[in-house]
User: Fold this.
Amino acid sequence: MYVAVKGGEKAIDKAHEWLDEARRGDPAVAELSVPQIREQLALAVNRVMAEGSLYDPDLAALAIKQARGDLIEAIFLIRAYRTTLPRFGYSLPVDTGAMECDRRISATFKDVPGGQVLGPTFDYTHRLLDFALEAERLERPAPEAGAAVHPEMPRVTEFLNKEGLIQDEVAPAPAEDQPDDLTRQPLELPAARPLRLQALTRGDEGFVLSMAYSTQRGYAKNHPFVGELRIGTVGVEAEIPELGFDIEIGEVVLTECETVNQFLGSKSEPPQFTRGYGLVFGQTERKAISMALVDRALRWKEFGEDDKGAPAQDEEFVLYHCDNIQATGFLEHIKLPHYVDFQSELELVRKIRREADEARHQEAAE
Assistant:
């Protein structure tokens, strides 16, 4: 319960002015532009797009600038803006099998058709500060000319699927083709797998990472291998009823991860490998891998496994706590005025203390 405070509006206006000054920083230092953030802080931009549920690198870069680099605040800005946008329809499911990969690796097979493509990654870098990056206008060699070649890259898990060694993904029935949309309807439990994946893909990267890490430490009986991790561009198509055929309306960069998980079998399923799945906007591989591990942990009922009581197996715990915007709103509201609430609790504590003191004095008198 809040109460009006005299002068509050003027104080808030001044706080906004101060925030603008703090955002700009020292005027003697060149101001960051949105294109600079988009091109040079691409991984931060990708996270804001993924957790903000809106694929637009320019808007994500603008949100990061406005939020002074606070990514959760930037995600909040993007989600708030997305709610103002009209929805004209739904795109068709993207074909990640036709992805033009910039990076594609497998931890399960060394030699795979299309090859291992390391791509731009920190995996093989030394974690040492590169002070050369402080130099302004650092000269870089120009990229070699020539068209990019994208060989065919069949899915690694299909090699296991041909031998029947991995659980087969069954296509949904026609009535289930349109999954619930988490950006339009509130989350309801129990949630079907498509809805769980939606929640995970826009969930906080740190939280999903922690849940994934817990499964590797034994809190879900999960022994994963990265069957395939691929990052690249896929076309987005939409069905146009007036034309009678589908057209490509754009392209998006995605990170996809399929994990291969050990499974000893159950009363209803034979021993085989099972899958975990992650799909995220942009180059966001840590999030995609984490998502795949948590996805697999949440499928324990589907495979007739025992409930180990692990946090990552608890659908309600994971899905209700992974959203950083909901968590931030609930957390930060406690710094807003709660004067009446506190005064009532303060008076209650004083009353209890008075009654306790009176009781002690009465006992002492007797």
User: Anything to note?
Assistant: Confidence is low (pLDDT under 50) at residues 1-5.
